[in-house]
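Key result, reporting period 2: structure in, sequence out.
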């Protein structure tokens, strides 16, 4: 048994490190299973035999597996069964929660996080908030803790894939499928925001779909050790990293980040799903971030012309650079998602833009609008001017007639 765990962790790591492909690993596992019991081989022996990895690579991966097992065997009450994946900041393991005999996922954070000021405090605070959430579309938080200097976050185990896996395989989601997924995510956010939890890192890698096709939002309530800006910069070189989905106000390092940042991240994910492209692409994270701040968004229905105008309007509203022009909350977003899924036009998307620009007009602010609206602005001003002249003329006439009528 222990051997199997070791092998599965070894196999996962070898694939994660791009030393061999998923199919090559599968073929080696097949050989392992068919192997005779008289001269039992290990997975690493077979991978070397088949020429997929070298002895040196095997040794390095073995050291990593041993280290991981040593770390995780220190978490009391849980037995590690294998590695599920790793991201920029942490490693996620599959484990058995011994008291309830159920499978869970444990995210183990690197020690260096604990040294960051306030991090441990926020880690527990957000963990407690997350444990209060109970929603079918949110990966359930189970436990947070520290053992031997190692901070860990225990959560519901989701058997399935992430949206990132589908996108990496080249999938473009249909209008209907993407709307159904977004409805589940918006309702997850509605629940989390109502409890005061903002995700801050909505992206395809944090959205899982289980085997019953239920969408699960992951990493809610996992306090981040770095600022949004730092986290974004850390993503250097990653194919689908944070900067592709980060909200402008997070890039600017604003401190009062609210739920509308999640609406932007969800909008950017939506965009990627229906067009097959990230909203803003550049050679490095810093240029991607500049585009989030300044570059106008190419409407998604200009890229995928089969998309309805309504769906495009929803995404554009979600991704408005100014958070005041986005949906105010996930409830409003849900209204529009459901309306477009029913074949109707969105009720709030376009109106939101119109109201915002009218308000700006009244305040006399300069607004960046397209041709048609600029004309509208000019004609409104002319109407105001004419009204003023007419009013002044009436007052003058009244005054003159008053003076003339005096004896
Ligand atoms: N609850 C879970 N159940 C099953 N697998 C999970 C679970 N949580 C995470 N995973 C897997 O572990 C992988 C790594 O997750 P992790 O959150 O550490 O990184 P990420 O979200 O991919 O990236 P980043 O570190 O940039 O946030 C995920 O891509 C997913 O495949
Ligand atoms: Mg994650």
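The corresponding designed sequence is given below.
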């Amino acid at each position: 048994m222990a051997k199997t765990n070791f092998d599965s962790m070894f196999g996962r790591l070898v694939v994660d490190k791009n030393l061999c492909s998923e199919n090559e690993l599968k073929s080696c596992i097949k050989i392992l299973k068919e192997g005779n019991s008289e001269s039992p081989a290990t997975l690493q022996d077979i991978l070397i035999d088949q020429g997929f990895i070298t002895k040196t690579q095997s040794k390095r991966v073995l050291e990593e597996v041993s280290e991981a097992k040593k770390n995780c065997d220190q978490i009391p009450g849980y037995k590690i069964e294998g590695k599920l994946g790793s991201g920029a900041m942490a490693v996620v393991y599959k484990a058995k929660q011994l008291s309830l005999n159920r499978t869970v996922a444990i995210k183990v954070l690197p020690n260096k996080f604990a040294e960051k000021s306030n991090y441990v405090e926020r880690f527990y605070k957000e963990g407690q908030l997350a444990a209060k959430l109970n929603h079918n579309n949110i990966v359930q938080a189970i436990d947070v803790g520290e053992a031997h200097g190692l901070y860990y976050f225990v959560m519901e185990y989701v058997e399935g894939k992430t949206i990132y896996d589908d996108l990496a395989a080249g999938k473009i989601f249909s209008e209907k499928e993407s709307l159904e997924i977004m409805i589940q995510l918006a309702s997850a956010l509605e629940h989390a925001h109502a409890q005061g939890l903002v995700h801050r890192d909505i992206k395809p890698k944090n959205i899982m779909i289980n085997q019953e096709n239920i969408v699960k939002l992951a990493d809610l309530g996992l306090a981040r050790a770095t600022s949004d800006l730092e986290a974004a910069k850390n993503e250097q070189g990653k194919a689908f990293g944070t900067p592709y989905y980060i909200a402008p106000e997070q890039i600017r390092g604003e401190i009062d980040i609210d739920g509308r940042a999640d609406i932007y991240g969800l909008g950017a994910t939506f965009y990627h799903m229906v067009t097959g492209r990230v909203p803003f692409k550049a050679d490095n994270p810093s240029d991607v971030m500049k585009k989030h701040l300044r570059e106008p968004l190419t409407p998604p229905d200009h890229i995928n012309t089969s998309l309805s105008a309504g769906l495009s309007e929803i995404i554009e509203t979600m991704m408005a650079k100014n958070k005041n022009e986005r949906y105010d909350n996930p409830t409003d977003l849900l209204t529009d998602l459901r309306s477009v899924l029913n074949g109707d036009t969105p009720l709030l998307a376009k109106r939101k833009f119109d109201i915002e620009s009218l308000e700006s007009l009244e305040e006399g602010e300069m607004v960046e609008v397209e041709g048609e609206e600029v004309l509208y602005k000019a004609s409104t001003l002319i109407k105001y001017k004419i009204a003023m002249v007419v009013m002044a003329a009436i007052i003058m006439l009244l005054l003159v007639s008053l003076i003339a009528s005096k004896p």
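Residues 160-361 form a domain with the Transferase(Phosphotransferase); domain 1 fold (CATH 1.10.510.10). The chain has three domains: 3-154, 160-361, 364-407. This case is discussed further under Risks and Mitigation.
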